[in-house]
Amino acid sequence: MNISDVAKKTGLTSKAIRFYEEKGVVTPPLRSDNGYRRYSAHHLDELNLLRQARQVGFTLDECRELVTLFNDPTRHSADVKARTLQKAAEIATHIDELQAMRMRLLALADACPGDENAECPIINNLAGCCGRKEGRAD
């Protein structure tokens, strides 16, 4: 298969496939006599794994590890499970951080009258100038 065939079958762009190859995330394809990349069904499997791993939040380095594990017949599913649970925990932490950010934003918006006046508790709070008198240097 050529790169455009692989792109259609994996849902990745040709540019993304070349990027993943350049970064050493996937096994480099063989080259034909004219220099074109020639992909096998195994490349499709690697690229599908990569695409789906990226969709659930794995980083490029983590995807490289997963592809390495995919290609290792002596891998242990416990290693894959541990990495997956670690990623799930990282996402849970990120969700908690995003929820805290959202709550802070809602509290800031709630404190603001949202009228035509220049005084804005949101700006004051974000700038750290709450409670200071105008013109006063601290």
Automatic annotation (TrEMBL):
GO terms for cellular component: cytoplasm. Keywords: Activator, Copper, Cytoplasm, DNA-binding, Metal-binding, Transcription, Transcription regulation. GO terms for molecular function: copper ion binding; DNA binding; DNA-binding transcription factor activity. Residues 1-69 form the HTH merR-type domain. The keyword Zinc-finger does not apply. Its main location: cytoplasm. InterPro entries: CueR (IPR011789), DNA-bd_dom_put_sf (IPR009061), MerR-type_HTH_dom (IPR000551), MerR_fam (IPR047057). It comes from the Bacteria. It is found in: Cytoplasm. GO terms for biological process: positive regulation of DNA-templated transcription. This is HTH-type transcriptional regulator CueR.
